[in-house]
Fold:
Amino acid sequence: MLVQLTLPDEWSGIESNPRHAKPEITLAERHAMNRKISVLLGTGALLAAGLSVLSAPAAQADELGCPDRAVCFFKNVTSRTGVYQDVTSSWQTLSASRGATTVWNTRHDDGALLHFTNGATRCIRPGVLNENLASIGTVDKIRIMTSPSC
Structure:
């Protein structure tokens, strides 16, 4: 990651050799410069952390064994119970995936509408991993839709 620092105007033309005379700056100017550097470095660290979070889902999908452009169901996160890929105009009844605790939508543009036995529905947007299905109810049906927001 490239971090660009802007030095005060009075520093222009000064070589980096420590044997050359350094400009005199006040303590307040030094503190202000240190704060700017800290903010820039902190922003760079946050950006780097954000990029690692953005790349984590793809790595996790591979680790869980969910193919690209699919909706996968898991029990206890590690045991895949089903893979659904077809856009449908009606509900598909889940068999082995009924009661799954986790769903992962690796599709790029399509949302997955889930139905629960208690009548609740939830839209799983593209790229979303939801590990809390059991808190909603028992998932029993899926409908993959052409809209990312179902």
